[in-house]
Amino acid sequence: MNIPSESREEVAIAEYVADEMPWECAWREGETLWYEAGSGDRPLVVLAGHLDTVPAQGNLPGRLDEGRVFGLGASDMKAGVAVMIELAHWWADREADGAVDLGLVFFPREEIAVEESPLPRLFETGLLDRTALVIVLEPTDNEIHAGCVGSIVARASFAGESAHAARPWAGVNAIAKAVEALAPVVSLEPVDVESGGLTFREVVTVTRIEGGVADNVVPAHATATLNYRYAPGRSRSDAEARLRDLVGDVEISSHSPAAPVPAENPLLERLRAAGNFDLAPKQAWTPVAQFAEIGLDAVNLGPGATRYAHRVDEHVEIGDLERTFAALTAFVLGTV
């Protein structure tokens, strides 16, 4: 908990994980670590966990308190990373001869724009090509969160003409133009979309608005930042076209695609049975989308509490760590 690992500063935490892992690292590039164990002739299940956290909010050092672990990254997602390491030790101690082979990937730079993700370099190696299911240990309150919404971050620009604020009719107020153009977007209701038997919600949120140079000048320029979360089933191009239909011309600064629900994967049903897990839609973006883009079925399942992720009082219940670990061991052994 107390190893600093904010995005782009994951060297120390990567070294800690490498020292703690009982398996030999099969591939490494920077702070991305790949491990694999098993016979090679059973389905490969990959567990994935990111090493970085959001910036600290005065929530270091971590602490134990009445059955809970508090601190930066406790929920998102050092809890999941801890389960992965513990599972590797369990496997090594037992020389597990279960129903699946097991792969583990630890990686940095997840809490920032997907364009900085190192996962594509791992994908290029072909090491994951035979993967039957990916489990990303993001915080899910010990539910299986299938699929995920896509996320587009875009900027809309509005041009006006500067003038003295005492004579605004002599200019064109760019902020006023922005307010007028964005009013229909702000009033949009969420749209429920069913995909793979689960209901996702499409929403557009104005997250920032900037403009003006002085208190007594009619602003000649204004920009607004928008975040569009869209349901599985939309392609990248369709989602961008939909956003432009709603807002007009925008500049796309980041685009993380949606991921489908792998409803037909038999390992998903076995995973549900292993922990008696509920199945819910992931109303957020996670790296399951990156695995889905290369044709791999992926779901989210982790011990962290979604409601405490990124909060100053971030924490995880120790009992939830134990539940995730127990379910994964049963799943790996094929005892369900």
Describe the overall structure.
This protein is of the alpha+beta class and 336 residues long. Helices cover 28% and strands 29% of the residues. The chain has helices at 11-20, 74-94, 119-124, 174-186, 236-247, 266-275, 288-293, 318-333, and strands at residues 27-29, 32-37, 44-50, 63-65, 68-70, 101-107, 131-136, 144-146, 150-159, 163-164, 191-195, 198-211, 217-218, 221-230, 251-256, 279-281, 298-300, 315-317. The strands form four sheets. Strands 1-2-6-3-7-17-8-16 form an eight-stranded mixed β-sheet. A five-stranded antiparallel β-sheet has the order 11-12-14-9-15, covered by helices on one side. Helix 2 (74-94) crosses helix 8. The model has no long low-confidence stretch (mean pLDDT 95).
General shape: elongated
Note poorly predicted spans: none
CATH architecture of the largest domain: 3-Layer(aba) Sandwich
Largest sheet: 8 strands, mixed
Rg value: 23 Å
In brief, what are we looking at here?
This protein folds into 2 domains: 11-148 and 259-333, 3-Layer(aba) Sandwich (Aminopeptidase); 150-256, 2-Layer Sandwich (Alpha-Beta Plaits), CATH 3.30.70.360.
How are the SSEs ordered, and which strands pair?
Layout: H1 11-20, E1 27-29, E2 32-37, E3 44-50, E4 63-65, E5 68-70, H2 74-94, E6 101-107, H3 119-124, E7 131-136, E8 144-146, E9 150-159, E10 163-164, H4 174-186, E11 191-195, E12 198-211, E13 217-218, E14 221-230, H5 236-247, E15 251-256, H6 266-275, E16 279-281, H7 288-293, E17 298-300, E18 315-317, H8 318-333
